[in-house]
Amino acid sequence: MKHQLMMSREDVSAFLRREFPQIYMQGDIWHVEEVAPLRAVLRMDYHESQIRPGGTISGPAMMTLADLALYVAILASIGPVGLAVTTNLNINFLRKPEPRPMLGECRLLKLGKRLAVGEVSMRSEGSDDIAAHVTGTYSIPSA
Amino acid sequence: MKHQLMMSREDVSAFLRREFPQIYMQGDIWHVEEVAPLRAVLRMDYHESQIRPGGTISGPAMMTLADLALYVAILASIGPVGLAVTTNLNINFLRKPEPRPMLGECRLLKLGKRLAVGEVSMRSEGSDDIAAHVTGTYSIPSA
Amino acid sequence: MKHQLMMSREDVSAFLRREFPQIYMQGDIWHVEEVAPLRAVLRMDYHESQIRPGGTISGPAMMTLADLALYVAILASIGPVGLAVTTNLNINFLRKPEPRPMLGECRLLKLGKRLAVGEVSMRSEGSDDIAAHVTGTYSIPSA
Amino acid sequence: MKHQLMMSREDVSAFLRREFPQIYMQGDIWHVEEVAPLRAVLRMDYHESQIRPGGTISGPAMMTLADLALYVAILASIGPVGLAVTTNLNINFLRKPEPRPMLGECRLLKLGKRLAVGEVSMRSEGSDDIAAHVTGTYSIPSA
Q1: Distance in angstroms (rounded) separating the CA atoms of residues A138 and A69
Q2: C90 to chain D: closest CA residue
Q3: pTM (2 d.p.)
Q4: Closest-CA distance of chain A to residue B91, Å
């Protein structure tokens, strides 16, 4: 698979803020760290809205990070498609994350005309261990 | 599988509010509707914190509903275990939900000593169509 | 969702034998027991090719049963489509199956123009306990 | 995670042939290509028992390859455990494989006392594209 970068990190960040303002409602916690063809790295700040007792990060917060990383990798690779929707997401929770920001690193395994499939490894910042792993599928609308 | 009901609807509701106050931080939107051995029905109010543009309900909100329905079905069937943790969750998004409350109906397929596995069907209140479907696994701590 | 039955049990059985003779190569072990709109029940005979030491049935044999049950439910609901392909399959193994035939009962949760999603519960014949549970997605070719 | 290699490629190969002779019943098609701590590469020969019309490889054959790659990575990392069993397997079919042998490359994401979780990328020999991707969980018996 050869793919070009269709949106820069700045383009994707601006697109998210314009099209999905509600994800920032609880705080400015989502940051696009890197984009490349078929790849993206997202950062989720450690924020009270995502925390469970004992300092751990909630499962849904990690699912949101993974879903967003998949979407950003798709945007970066095919350009702005507001209507792509998640059809399947499978998450394995592997270790309790640290009370720190988390990074979600996405790699698209397939980018077809109708479906995109990717995997996301999530780590606490500064850690090598994967705290949670996702594979997910987006349905891409016909142009 | 024969199982008894170990916690009533009122017991489970009180347990959730005492042990997981943070899930009610954004609003009192989670309601245990029914419990039975190996079964539970949860209700998620239609609340601004769960909504995406166009009135649709966010994917992570539905994942939270499913995860909570699994946990309540386990609590109802084995009693209060604060430390059960989700290890795997697989969700299929099937239809755009209505701008209404959602119900998550959980059925445990297995309740072993170490692992519990269940499925959750999620519908908009008043609708027969399944908007999203989850299968999930919880790891149960040794007594 | 309202759907009609587009192929009878006999039609589907004949279609499978004509289009997929290779699945019967190791023995005449696959039987369509029932079809209805959005539903199908498949039977897998207990056959040496599917058995592991101790009399248990192999995981891939159960995945094949589930995949076939999904395909038959789709065929019964939309008619003969040779080119539908599985895009995702998620299986939970719950209990060791008995040394007996297995039944796979499929219910389609969504039957769209592009994607069909269903779940399959697999039991040893004569048992109420679910031995394995699958959710799967088929991609349906444009007409 | 630091892990040692507990069984060599030769050890694992001999163990599989001794403990699981039935997987070789249809032909000597499964080969352990590499093992390392938390990693394994398995090769599946292109064999008539795995083929569908048009020369493509069956879905269950790919699931078997992935399941075996996970098991070999676990064996290599913790030593001979005959009774580890698959509890969950999630597969995404991405591209039609070539009419050639396939390689399944496994990486364990977690190797705990009770559960091991890994991912497997499957490619046609000589191809860079991933034909199918699996994440799977094994339950490890108490010592």
Answers
A1: 12
A2: D90
A3: 0.95
A4: 5
**Nearest chain C Cα distance for residue B46, angstroms:** 23
A115: which chain C residues are within 8 Å (Cβ-Cβ)? 87, 139
- Residue extents of the structural domains in chain D: 9-139
φ, ψ for residue A73 (rounded to 5)?
-65, -35
Report CA C87 to chain centroid distance, whole Å.
15
DSSP calls for A1-63: ------S-HHHHHHHHHHH-GGGGTT-S-EEEEEEETTEEEEEE---GGGB-GGGPBPHHHHH
Q: What residues of chain A lie within 8 A of the CB of B92, using their CB?
A: 87-88
Please report the sign of the dihedral spanned by the C-alpha atoms of residue C56, residue B86, residue A123, residue A127.
Answer: negative
Contact criterion met (CB below 8 Å) for B50 and B100: no
The residues facing B107 across adjacent strands are: B39, B119
- Which sign, positive or negative, has the C-alpha torsion A49, D1, A41, A125? positive
ipTM of this predicted complex? Answer: 0.93
Put the strands of the sheet holding B85-93 in their side by side order: A30-36, A39-44, A102-111, A115-124, A132-139, A85-93, B85-93, B132-139, B115-124, B102-111, B39-44, B30-36
Q: How far is it, in rounded angstroms, from Cα C85 to Cα B5? A: 42
Yes or no: say if D50 and D58 are a contact pair by the CB < 8 Å rule: yes
Dist CA B50 CA B42 (whole Å): 15
- From the CB of residue A84, how many other CB atoms can be counted at a distance below 10 Å? 17
Whether residue A135 and residue D137 make contact (CB cut-off 8 A), yes or no, is no
CATH class of residue range A9-139 = alpha beta
pLDDT band at D24 (very low <50, low <70, confident <90, very high): confident
> In this structure, what DSSP letter does residue D37 have?
T
Question: Which pLDDT band holds residue D53 (cuts at 50, 70, 90)?
Answer: low
Shortest Cα distance, chain C CAs vs residue D99, angstroms: 16
Regions of chain B short of the pLDDT cut 70: 1-2, 53-54, 143
- Contact list, D137 vs chain A (CB under 8 Å): 92
Give the total residue count for chain A: 143
Question: Across the interface, do B115 and D139 touch by the CB < 8 Å criterion?
Answer: yes
- CB atoms under 10 Å from CB of B25, counted, come to 11
Residues of B in contact with C90 (CB under 8 A): 90, 135
- Side-chain-facing half-sphere of A18: CA atoms under 13 Å: 8
Task: State the pLDDT at residue C27.
Answer: 81
